[in-house]
């Protein structure tokens, strides 16, 4: 009897303990955001390599010693201006020889012509045979060919002499001079005599990913339309200051760079104050204006299988929802194109750490 009373008492205590233990529920406090429509100017930054609109490596076309340097380093030059002089003595001698050879060939041709005319008269009088007339004609043809060859050699000698004056192929600014007076140079030198860069306009080369280019083509219909409709772009110089003049995207490469999957674009900037230099670096800034759009922090999103998600707060619990975002962003925010509506409440940060269905204690962020 005592044993039964003890068992009943133990069961009663157990039941009482169960009633007094509350059910443990998982919840957390998160900063939330009520979605609303806003106007945004999105700016994306891309590292760019700067280059003058025309950069020419100046190399000699003939061999010889440099006898004169007619420019200074970093000097402005005009197209056709003489930059270097290569020893002209052997080339003047070669030209004189070629001129003499032309005169000799002209004399031989005149003699061959006299001989041909004389042979024709003698053949009409049957003084000589057909063989002699054919020989005279062949001699005349050979003399004509020799004259043509001599004239070609004279032209070549004149060209070589002109090449001893190395001229600028374009307007621009010179770089550093690699050779000095007395240096032996040739057309096969590894380093150019000097580089001439036309910096009146600067090309800024930067890259977008292949997927970004595809997005642009889908948005604008074609790359030509993208180039035509794209707003002006900005440039931040290597010293961190904004460049005063804006440029435009003028070209998109038709080739995806192997290994990186990047596509190169070119933006053109005027360089009236000569602040920019070919070979330098900068940052191209692309802008996109969006009106009455939904903007959320990037920290409110997470990615899964190449898709972007946010957590909505529905009936006090976190519920994941897929969204699509605009291709450009400012590094801290996304413009949401589909998946959210004005008035939706989302978890504003730490989305990657939230669990589906967790109870959310709201800590309101910017409304």
Summarize this structure as a short list of keywords or feature phrases.
single chain, 367 residues, alpha+beta, twelve-stranded antiparallel sheet, four-stranded antiparallel sheet, 19 strands, disordered N terminus
Summarize the structure.
With 367 residues, the protein is α+β, with helices and mostly antiparallel strands. 29% of the residues lie in helices and 38% in strands.
Describe the model.
This protein is an alpha+beta fold and 367 residues long. It contains five helices and 19 strands. Strands 2, 4, 7, 9, 10, 11, 12, 13, 14, 15, 16 and 17 form a twelve-stranded antiparallel sheet that branches. The protein has a four-stranded antiparallel sheet with strand order 6-5-3-8. A three-stranded mixed sheet has the order 18-1-19, with no helix packed on it. α2 packs antiparallel against α3 and α4 (210-220) packs across α5. The longest helix is centred in the N-terminal third of the chain and has 36 residues, at 89-124. The protein is elongated. The two termini are 70 Å apart.
């Amino acid at each position: 009897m005592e044993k039964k009373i003890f068992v009943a008492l133990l069961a009663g205590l157990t039941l009482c303990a169960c009633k007094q233990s509350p059910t443990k529920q998982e919840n957390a406090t998160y900063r939330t955001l009520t979605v609303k429509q806003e106007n945004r100017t999105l700016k994306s930054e891309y590292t760019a390599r700067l280059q003058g609109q025309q950069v020419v490596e100046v190399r000699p076309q003939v061999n010889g010693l440099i006898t004169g340097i007619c420019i200074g380093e970093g000097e402005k030059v005009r197209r056709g201006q003489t930059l270097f002089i290569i020893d002209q003595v052997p080339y003047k001698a070669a030209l004189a020889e070629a001129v003499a050879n032309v005169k000799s060939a002209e004399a031989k041709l005149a003699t061959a012509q006299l001989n041909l005319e004389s042979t024709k008269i003698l053949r009409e009088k049957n003084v000589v045979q057909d063989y002699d007339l054919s020989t005279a004609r062949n001699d005349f043809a050979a003399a004509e060919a020799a004259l043509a060859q001599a004239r070609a050699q004279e032209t070549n000698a004149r060209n070589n002499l002109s090449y001893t004056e190395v001229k600028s192929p374009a307007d621009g600014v010179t770089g550093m001079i690699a050779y000095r007076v007395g240096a032996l140079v040739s057309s096969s030198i590894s380093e150019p005599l000097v580089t001439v860069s036309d910096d009146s306009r600067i090309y800024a080369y930067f890259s977008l990913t292949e997927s970004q280019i595809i997005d642009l083509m889908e948005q604008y219909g074609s790359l030509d339309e993208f180039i035509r409709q794209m707003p002006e772009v900005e440039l931040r110089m290597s010293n961190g200051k904004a460049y005063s003049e804006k440029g435009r995207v003028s070209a998109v490469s038709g080739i995806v760079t192997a290994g990186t999957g990047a596509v190169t674009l070119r933006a053109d900037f005027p360089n009236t104050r000569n602040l920019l230099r070919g070979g330098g670096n900068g940052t191209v800034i692309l802008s996109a204006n969006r009106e009455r759009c939904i903007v959320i922090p990037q920290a409110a999103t997470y990615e899964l299988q190449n898709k972007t998600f946010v957590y909505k707060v529905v009936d006090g619990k976190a519920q994941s929802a897929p969204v699509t975002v605009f291709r450009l962003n400012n590094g801290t925010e996304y413009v949401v194109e589909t998946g959210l509506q004005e008035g939706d409440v989302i978890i504003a940060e730490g989305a990657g750490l939230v669990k589906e269905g967790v109870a959310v204690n709201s800590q309101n962020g910017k409304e």
